[in-house]
Amino acid sequence: MKNKLIFNLLAVCCGLFILASPVTANQEQAAIEAAEHFLFLIDNGHYAQSWEEAADFFKQQVPKQEWIRQISSLRPAFGRPVKRKVQFKNTAQKLRGAPDGDYLIIQYATSFSAKQQAMETVTPVLEKDGQWRVVGYYIR
């Protein structure tokens, strides 16, 4: 039940995009790189570092120790990623439950060693310092 709390919270940040935002091709590439770096950290069990490098809003919503506890109890069951491909991506300026900003919602079709078909949604946001950081992660 507690696992659902964190992932439902993050799903809210990933799940509903309202308006497209004017994200340039270079910004989109930077957002994808931030998402893939976050996934690399998760894939390799660097959960504390994934929290530390996440967006400020993410850290305000999920305390570090709670994130580590939740993700470490859920993610290892999927096993190692075998194949991951961008299935969908879209920009947004408004997400339900999150402050307005420039977001890129990225859905990856992922095959893991213990789960053949999964969908990972990673949502980077452009922060005030000009860096893209992950504000949401959801896996199903």
Distance separating the two termini = 15 Å
Inertia-based shape: globular
The percentage helix is: 40-55%
Q: SSE string, helix = H, strand = E?
A: HHHHHEEEE
**Structure annotation, total helices:** 5
Stretches where pLDDT is under 50 for at least 5 consecutive residues are 1-9, 11-19
Mean pLDDT rating: 89
Specify Rg, calculated over alpha carbons.
Answer: 14 Å
Largest sheet: 4 strands, antiparallel
Please state roughly what percent of the residues sit in beta strands, choosing from under 5%, 5-15%, 15-25%, 25-35%, 35-45% or over 45%: 25-35%
What structural category characterises the helix and strand content? alpha+beta
Number of strands: 4
Spatial order of strands in the largest sheet: 1-2-3-4
Which helices and strands appear, and what pairs or packs with what?
Elements: H1 2-15, H2 25-43, H3 47-52, H4 56-61, H5 64-74, E1 81-92, E2 103-112, E3 118-126, E4 132-139
Antiparallel strand pairs: 1-2, 2-3, 3-4
Task: Explain briefly what this protein structure is.
With 140 residues, this protein is an alpha+beta fold.
Overview of this structure, please?
The chain has 140 residues and is an alpha+beta fold. Helix content is 40%, strand content 28%. It has five helices and four strands; from the N terminus they run αααααββββ. The protein has helices at 2-15, 25-43, 47-52, 56-61, 64-74, and strands at residues 81-92, 103-112, 118-126, 132-139. A four-stranded antiparallel sheet has the order 1-2-3-4. The radius of gyration is 14 Å and the shape is globular. Residues 1-9 and 11-19 have low confidence and may be disordered.
